[in-house]
Amino acid sequence: MYIEYCNYNKTIEDYNKELSLVFKAIEKNVNGICIPIHMYHEIKNFVPEGVVCSVPIDYPSGYSSTKTKNHSVLNAVKGGVQSIDYVMNNYLFQSKPNDLEKEIKSVLNICRDYNSTLRIFIDNRLSKDLIGTSKYLSNLGIEFCYPTIGYHHDGFVDTLINCKLIEKDVNINTIFNGYFWTEEQYNILKRSNIFGIRVYNTKFWCNYN
Predict the structure, then answer these.
(1) 110 falls in which pLDDT band (50, 70, 90)?
(2) Which of 5, 42, 110, 187 holds its CA 20 to 30 A away from the CA of 140?
(3) Each residue of 56-88: b (16+ CB within 10 Å) or e?
(4) What is the pLDDT of residue 206?
């Protein structure tokens, strides 16, 4: 199972402490780290080969212009970022799907040019048809998604159910990015057979591995 540590959806009050947590996660053999772009530039030369580094683009709203997003993605992948965590503009999806399709394809092409992976957040609170949205993304060539934004620590059960539904009906790998706080929940996730888990608390993760 793919397991990643993410810190970009919280307030970082002590930057040096957060850096130490990132390296602690790496020492505990996480498969990926998800960090702000400035932190990536600071530590990229110290990250072991095989650990996926991802950065967020337009997180958490997704409302920036296509030009702005493309510029941010290009700068990130040129700097060596292996994975882009992209927030889909739900307004465009609901009102101007052709515009959104062009935007996603342009970002996807940039990522492919630099051997980077595009992973897309689906806002399950705004999506009227989670499976339909997932199929739409799959048809565009997206291979990985998050079933929720994850910014407000979305619920454990709903997020896990959405992961299972997507992977059952759509050719997309999901990464659980809801909130969990007990060993029992962690073990449920490990047995769920979904592709991956996003962890926000390094101490918790380390305690149960």
Answers:
(1) very high
(2) 5
(3) bbbbeebeeebeebbebbeebbeeebbbbbbbb
(4) 53
